[in-house]
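Quick review question:
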């Protein structure tokens, strides 16, 4: 059974198997962010980017960045590190906007 799963996931060991599952979890977080955005937009009847979108983005980016580092894929590493910076920056801007609105 494990040989079939290993072949299907293109892994050679249990360590790689768990890393692939970890990477798939990151992809699910990324997919989840779009579902969150879509549901929020449907409720509002306009395009909305809820705060949860950015948290899902950060979670997905951290997981996928870790996975990319394990795989040693420089293209994937660069893509996820830049995205992570952008997602954190958006949260920072939202935080500052809310703080200024409260003042």
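Suggested answer, residue by residue:
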């Amino acid at each position: 059974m494990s040989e079939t799963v290993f072949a299907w996931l293109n892994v050679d060991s249990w360590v790689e198997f768990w890393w692939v599952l970890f990477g798939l979890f990151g992809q699910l977080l990324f997919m989840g962010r779009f579902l969150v955005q879509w549901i929020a937009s449907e409720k509002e009847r306009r395009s909305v980017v809820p705060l949860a979108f950015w948290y899902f983005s950060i979670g997905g980016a951290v997981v996928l960045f870790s996975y990319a580092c394990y795989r040693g894929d420089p293209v994937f590493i660069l893509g996820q590190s830049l995205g992570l910076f952008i997602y954190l920056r958006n949260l920072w801007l939202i935080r500052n906007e809310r703080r200024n609105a409260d003042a």
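Why it works: The first helix runs from residue 2 to 9. The chain has a mean pLDDT of 91.
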